[in-house]
Design brief:
heterodimer, A: 187 residues, elongated, B: 133 residues, mainly alpha, 5 helices, 63% helix, disordered C terminus
Chain lengths: 187, 133
Protein backbone atom coordinates (compact mmCIF):
# COMPACT_ATOMS: atom_id res chain seq x y z
CA UNK A 1 0.00 0.00 0.00
CA UNK A 2 1.47 3.40 -0.95
CA UNK A 3 1.34 6.58 1.13
CA UNK A 4 -1.57 8.05 -0.85
CA UNK A 5 -3.72 5.07 0.10
CA UNK A 6 -2.90 5.57 3.78
CA UNK A 7 -3.78 9.25 3.42
CA UNK A 8 -7.13 8.31 1.80
CA UNK A 9 -7.88 5.89 4.63
CA UNK A 10 -7.16 8.53 7.27
CA UNK A 11 -9.31 11.08 5.45
CA UNK A 12 -12.16 8.56 5.28
CA UNK A 13 -12.09 8.30 9.06
CA UNK A 14 -9.71 5.37 9.66
CA UNK A 15 -7.55 7.23 12.18
CA UNK A 16 -5.48 4.13 13.02
CA UNK A 17 -3.95 4.26 9.54
CA UNK A 18 -2.12 7.40 10.63
CA UNK A 19 0.13 5.22 12.82
CA UNK A 20 1.87 4.19 9.58
CA UNK A 21 3.17 7.77 9.23
CA UNK A 22 4.08 8.03 12.91
CA UNK A 23 6.07 4.79 12.83
CA UNK A 24 7.75 5.58 9.51
CA UNK A 25 8.82 9.14 10.25
CA UNK A 26 9.06 9.45 14.04
CA UNK A 27 12.85 9.06 14.21
CA UNK A 28 13.55 11.63 11.53
CA UNK A 29 10.99 14.10 12.93
CA UNK A 30 12.42 13.65 16.42
CA UNK A 31 15.94 14.07 15.11
CA UNK A 32 15.11 17.38 13.37
CA UNK A 33 13.37 18.66 16.51
CA UNK A 34 16.29 17.54 18.69
CA UNK A 35 18.93 19.15 16.45
CA UNK A 36 17.04 22.43 16.60
CA UNK A 37 16.14 22.46 20.31
CA UNK A 38 19.08 20.52 21.82
CA UNK A 39 16.62 19.18 24.38
CA UNK A 40 15.16 15.67 24.28
CA UNK A 41 11.96 16.52 26.19
CA UNK A 42 11.19 19.52 24.06
CA UNK A 43 12.06 17.57 20.93
CA UNK A 44 9.55 14.88 21.88
CA UNK A 45 6.84 17.49 22.47
CA UNK A 46 7.60 19.15 19.15
CA UNK A 47 7.59 15.80 17.35
CA UNK A 48 4.15 15.04 18.84
CA UNK A 49 2.87 18.48 17.86
CA UNK A 50 4.21 17.94 14.34
CA UNK A 51 2.20 14.74 13.85
CA UNK A 52 -0.96 16.34 15.29
CA UNK A 53 -0.56 19.33 12.94
CA UNK A 54 0.01 16.96 10.04
CA UNK A 55 -3.13 15.00 10.94
CA UNK A 56 -5.21 18.17 11.15
CA UNK A 57 -3.83 19.50 7.87
CA UNK A 58 -3.84 16.21 5.96
CA UNK A 59 -6.84 17.29 3.89
CA UNK A 60 -4.84 20.25 2.57
CA UNK A 61 -1.72 18.19 1.73
CA UNK A 62 -0.77 18.57 -1.92
CA UNK A 63 -0.40 15.02 -3.30
CA UNK A 64 2.12 16.22 -5.89
CA UNK A 65 4.58 16.94 -3.05
CA UNK A 66 6.56 14.42 -1.03
CA UNK A 67 4.80 13.59 2.25
CA UNK A 68 8.09 13.33 4.17
CA UNK A 69 9.28 16.79 3.05
CA UNK A 70 5.91 18.29 3.98
CA UNK A 71 6.07 16.65 7.42
CA UNK A 72 9.70 17.66 8.04
CA UNK A 73 8.84 21.22 7.06
CA UNK A 74 6.04 21.28 9.65
CA UNK A 75 8.50 19.95 12.23
CA UNK A 76 11.15 22.51 11.25
CA UNK A 77 8.70 25.42 11.53
CA UNK A 78 7.29 24.18 14.84
CA UNK A 79 10.75 23.70 16.35
CA UNK A 80 12.06 27.02 15.03
CA UNK A 81 9.15 28.95 16.52
CA UNK A 82 9.74 27.08 19.79
CA UNK A 83 13.44 28.07 20.02
CA UNK A 84 12.91 31.62 18.79
CA UNK A 85 12.13 32.76 22.33
CA UNK A 86 15.15 31.03 23.86
CA UNK A 87 18.40 32.59 22.65
CA UNK A 88 21.65 30.69 23.15
CA UNK A 89 25.01 32.43 23.11
CA UNK A 90 27.31 30.47 20.83
CA UNK A 91 31.07 30.38 21.09
CA UNK A 92 33.01 32.81 18.95
CA UNK A 93 34.80 30.52 16.53
CA UNK A 94 37.38 31.39 13.97
CA UNK A 95 36.84 28.63 11.41
CA UNK A 96 40.32 28.97 9.82
CA UNK A 97 41.41 25.40 10.12
CA UNK A 98 43.66 23.14 8.09
CA UNK A 99 42.00 20.30 6.18
CA UNK A 100 44.44 17.88 7.88
CA UNK A 101 42.86 18.69 11.24
CA UNK A 102 39.68 16.94 10.12
CA UNK A 103 41.47 13.59 9.93
CA UNK A 104 43.55 14.35 13.05
CA UNK A 105 40.32 14.98 14.99
CA UNK A 106 38.88 11.73 13.71
CA UNK A 107 41.98 9.79 14.79
CA UNK A 108 41.97 11.45 18.22
CA UNK A 109 38.24 10.72 18.72
CA UNK A 110 38.85 7.06 17.82
CA UNK A 111 41.12 6.82 20.85
CA UNK A 112 38.24 7.66 23.18
CA UNK A 113 35.65 5.31 24.66
CA UNK A 114 32.37 5.12 22.77
CA UNK A 115 30.39 7.06 25.41
CA UNK A 116 33.07 9.75 25.58
CA UNK A 117 33.05 10.02 21.78
CA UNK A 118 29.30 10.55 21.79
CA UNK A 119 29.43 13.13 24.56
CA UNK A 120 32.29 15.07 22.97
CA UNK A 121 30.70 15.20 19.50
CA UNK A 122 27.31 16.23 20.87
CA UNK A 123 29.01 18.91 22.98
CA UNK A 124 30.65 20.26 19.83
CA UNK A 125 27.38 20.10 17.89
CA UNK A 126 25.67 22.16 20.58
CA UNK A 127 28.11 24.99 19.94
CA UNK A 128 26.99 25.31 16.33
CA UNK A 129 24.12 27.64 15.52
CA UNK A 130 20.67 26.09 14.98
CA UNK A 131 20.92 26.23 11.18
CA UNK A 132 24.50 24.95 11.13
CA UNK A 133 23.66 22.02 13.41
CA UNK A 134 20.52 21.18 11.49
CA UNK A 135 22.10 21.38 8.03
CA UNK A 136 25.20 19.37 8.93
CA UNK A 137 23.20 16.60 10.63
CA UNK A 138 20.55 16.45 7.91
CA UNK A 139 23.29 16.12 5.32
CA UNK A 140 25.61 13.65 7.04
CA UNK A 141 23.40 11.73 9.46
CA UNK A 142 19.99 11.77 7.82
CA UNK A 143 21.48 11.51 4.32
CA UNK A 144 19.24 14.24 2.92
CA UNK A 145 20.19 15.81 -0.40
CA UNK A 146 20.69 19.54 -0.78
CA UNK A 147 17.29 19.77 -2.50
CA UNK A 148 15.60 17.95 0.38
CA UNK A 149 17.33 20.21 2.92
CA UNK A 150 16.06 23.17 0.90
CA UNK A 151 12.48 21.81 1.09
CA UNK A 152 12.70 21.20 4.83
CA UNK A 153 14.41 24.40 5.96
CA UNK A 154 13.40 26.84 3.22
CA UNK A 155 17.07 27.89 2.89
CA UNK A 156 18.39 28.37 -0.63
CA UNK A 157 20.75 25.75 -2.07
CA UNK A 158 23.56 28.33 -2.21
CA UNK A 159 22.96 29.22 1.43
CA UNK A 160 22.90 25.55 2.44
CA UNK A 161 26.27 25.01 0.74
CA UNK A 162 27.75 27.97 2.60
CA UNK A 163 26.31 26.79 5.94
CA UNK A 164 27.52 23.24 5.30
CA UNK A 165 31.03 24.43 4.50
CA UNK A 166 31.15 26.77 7.51
CA UNK A 167 29.65 24.27 9.94
CA UNK A 168 32.15 21.55 9.00
CA UNK A 169 35.06 23.87 9.67
CA UNK A 170 33.49 25.18 12.87
CA UNK A 171 32.75 21.67 14.11
CA UNK A 172 36.35 20.59 13.60
CA UNK A 173 37.69 23.74 15.24
CA UNK A 174 35.49 23.15 18.29
CA UNK A 175 36.42 19.47 18.38
CA UNK A 176 40.11 20.36 18.25
CA UNK A 177 39.65 22.70 21.24
CA UNK A 178 37.62 20.13 23.15
CA UNK A 179 40.09 17.35 22.38
CA UNK A 180 43.06 19.41 23.55
CA UNK A 181 41.30 20.19 26.84
CA UNK A 182 40.37 16.49 27.12
CA UNK A 183 44.03 15.50 26.71
CA UNK A 184 45.06 18.13 29.28
CA UNK A 185 42.51 16.75 31.76
CA UNK A 186 43.75 13.15 31.26
CA UNK A 187 47.43 14.08 31.62
CA UNK B 1 31.51 21.78 -2.99
CA UNK B 2 30.29 18.29 -2.17
CA UNK B 3 26.80 17.30 -3.34
CA UNK B 4 26.97 13.97 -1.55
CA UNK B 5 29.51 13.03 1.08
CA UNK B 6 31.77 10.01 0.96
CA UNK B 7 31.87 7.48 3.78
CA UNK B 8 35.59 8.30 4.09
CA UNK B 9 34.79 11.91 4.82
CA UNK B 10 36.16 12.57 8.36
CA UNK B 11 33.13 14.74 9.16
CA UNK B 12 30.80 11.84 8.37
CA UNK B 13 32.97 9.45 10.38
CA UNK B 14 32.94 11.76 13.38
CA UNK B 15 29.21 12.55 13.23
CA UNK B 16 28.28 8.90 12.83
CA UNK B 17 29.75 8.34 16.30
CA UNK B 18 27.42 10.93 17.85
CA UNK B 19 24.60 8.40 18.12
CA UNK B 20 21.18 8.94 16.57
CA UNK B 21 18.62 10.46 18.91
CA UNK B 22 15.33 8.59 19.04
CA UNK B 23 12.00 9.30 20.74
CA UNK B 24 10.75 7.33 23.76
CA UNK B 25 9.26 3.85 23.36
CA UNK B 26 5.74 5.14 24.10
CA UNK B 27 5.98 7.85 21.47
CA UNK B 28 3.73 6.21 18.86
CA UNK B 29 1.12 5.26 21.47
CA UNK B 30 1.10 8.80 22.91
CA UNK B 31 0.79 10.43 19.50
CA UNK B 32 -2.02 8.10 18.40
CA UNK B 33 -3.93 8.83 21.62
CA UNK B 34 -3.68 12.55 20.88
CA UNK B 35 -4.67 11.99 17.25
CA UNK B 36 -7.78 10.07 18.30
CA UNK B 37 -8.77 12.87 20.68
CA UNK B 38 -8.30 15.36 17.82
CA UNK B 39 -10.40 13.17 15.52
CA UNK B 40 -13.28 13.13 18.00
CA UNK B 41 -12.97 16.91 18.57
CA UNK B 42 -13.18 17.38 14.80
CA UNK B 43 -16.40 15.34 14.61
CA UNK B 44 -18.23 17.04 17.46
CA UNK B 45 -17.29 20.59 16.52
CA UNK B 46 -20.30 22.93 16.54
CA UNK B 47 -22.12 23.45 13.25
CA UNK B 48 -25.12 25.79 13.32
CA UNK B 49 -28.44 24.33 12.17
CA UNK B 50 -29.25 27.46 10.18
CA UNK B 51 -26.31 28.74 8.18
CA UNK B 52 -25.46 32.38 7.43
CA UNK B 53 -27.03 32.41 3.95
CA UNK B 54 -30.36 31.20 5.24
CA UNK B 55 -30.26 33.79 8.02
CA UNK B 56 -29.61 36.49 5.39
CA UNK B 57 -32.63 35.30 3.34
CA UNK B 58 -34.80 35.24 6.48
CA UNK B 59 -33.79 38.80 7.41
CA UNK B 60 -34.39 40.10 3.86
CA UNK B 61 -37.82 38.45 3.64
CA UNK B 62 -38.82 39.63 7.12
CA UNK B 63 -37.81 43.17 6.23
CA UNK B 64 -39.87 42.85 3.05
CA UNK B 65 -42.86 41.61 5.02
CA UNK B 66 -42.47 44.42 7.57
CA UNK B 67 -42.21 47.03 4.83
CA UNK B 68 -45.29 45.64 3.09
CA UNK B 69 -47.18 45.41 6.40
CA UNK B 70 -46.38 49.01 7.31
CA UNK B 71 -47.20 50.07 3.79
CA UNK B 72 -44.13 52.28 3.86
CA UNK B 73 -43.60 54.71 1.07
CA UNK B 74 -39.85 54.67 0.46
CA UNK B 75 -40.11 57.85 -1.61
CA UNK B 76 -41.28 59.85 1.43
CA UNK B 77 -38.51 62.16 2.51
CA UNK B 78 -39.95 63.16 5.89
CA UNK B 79 -40.68 60.76 8.69
CA UNK B 80 -44.06 61.19 10.41
CA UNK B 81 -44.07 59.54 13.85
CA UNK B 82 -47.89 59.49 14.12
CA UNK B 83 -48.29 57.74 10.80
CA UNK B 84 -45.61 55.28 11.74
CA UNK B 85 -47.27 54.41 15.06
CA UNK B 86 -50.67 54.11 13.32
CA UNK B 87 -49.08 51.64 10.91
CA UNK B 88 -47.63 49.64 13.79
CA UNK B 89 -50.93 49.49 15.72
CA UNK B 90 -52.94 48.77 12.59
CA UNK B 91 -50.70 45.74 11.99
CA UNK B 92 -51.84 43.88 15.11
CA UNK B 93 -55.66 43.65 14.94
CA UNK B 94 -55.76 42.16 11.47
CA UNK B 95 -52.69 41.44 9.44
CA UNK B 96 -53.53 41.46 5.80
CA UNK B 97 -50.84 40.14 3.56
CA UNK B 98 -50.64 40.06 -0.18
CA UNK B 99 -50.12 36.74 -1.99
CA UNK B 100 -46.43 37.42 -2.64
CA UNK B 101 -45.85 38.09 1.06
CA UNK B 102 -47.63 34.81 1.85
CA UNK B 103 -45.48 32.92 -0.64
CA UNK B 104 -42.37 34.56 0.86
CA UNK B 105 -43.33 33.39 4.34
CA UNK B 106 -43.89 29.85 3.10
CA UNK B 107 -40.53 29.92 1.28
CA UNK B 108 -38.71 31.09 4.41
CA UNK B 109 -40.16 28.28 6.49
CA UNK B 110 -39.45 25.78 3.71
CA UNK B 111 -35.81 26.98 3.56
CA UNK B 112 -35.45 26.60 7.33
CA UNK B 113 -36.90 23.08 7.31
CA UNK B 114 -34.77 21.96 4.32
CA UNK B 115 -31.66 23.40 5.96
CA UNK B 116 -32.34 21.61 9.26
CA UNK B 117 -32.94 18.30 7.45
CA UNK B 118 -29.69 18.64 5.42
CA UNK B 119 -27.65 19.52 8.53
CA UNK B 120 -29.11 16.52 10.39
CA UNK B 121 -28.21 14.18 7.52
CA UNK B 122 -24.65 15.57 7.49
CA UNK B 123 -24.28 15.17 11.27
CA UNK B 124 -25.46 11.52 11.04
CA UNK B 125 -22.98 10.88 8.21
CA UNK B 126 -20.09 12.38 10.19
CA UNK B 127 -21.01 10.40 13.33
CA UNK B 128 -21.09 7.13 11.41
CA UNK B 129 -17.56 7.92 10.11
CA UNK B 130 -16.08 8.10 13.64
CA UNK B 131 -14.10 4.91 14.20
CA UNK B 132 -14.76 2.87 17.33
CA UNK B 133 -12.02 3.47 19.94
Amino acid sequence: MDENQYIDQVLQGNVDSFSYFVNTYKNMVFSIAYRITNDENRAEEIAQETFIKAFKGLGNFNRQAKFSSWLYRICHNTAMSSVRQKKHKYLEINPDIEQDTFSENNDAINQLYREDQKELINKALKELSVNERLVITLFYLEEQSLDEINEITGLTIANIKVILHRSRRKLHTILKQLLSSEITTIS
Amino acid sequence: MIEKYSKDDPTYQILSKSGNPSPSDEFTVNVMEQIKIEAVKKQISYTPLINKNVWAIIIIVLLGITAAGFNLDFKTETFDMDNFMDSVFSLFPVIQVSSWVGISIILVFAAIVVNIVIENINIRKRRSAIPFF
